[in-house]
Amino acid sequence: xxxxxxxxxxxxxxLMAAARAQEPKAFACSFAVGLAHTxxxxxxxxxxxxxxxxxxxxxxxxxxxxxxxxxxxxxxxRIVQAVNAMHFLEVVTEGFLNITTIYDKDxxxxxYPAVHSRHLGILGQPIVTQYQGFCHSKE
Length: 139
Known about the structure:
eight-stranded antiparallel β-barrel; globular
């Protein structure tokens, strides 16, 4: 019985390692749909957010790190692995938080559904933005 459990655990670990090896090491992400909520005069006010695009590269699940690629520079990301998704967290210099979640590939679209959220504040007023879009493997 113990031998069977050990064999099952070893097989499971090998399958997970093989699946991780097939995961992209870089993505190009674009978010055409977004909504910003700005706190004004005692409540949140919603407005459309402009589309955004960026890259995520040098993905290293073992080290839980990646790089955010923007036209004006590179940022460091932390990775949190979920069952069917990978979360990329960016702690911005001012302490604000950006989170991008890339879900398992939608084979019919040949793309990875993704959500990008920004949590920040300007002049003490909270601003929360959430985008929906897709990422494509850069490999």
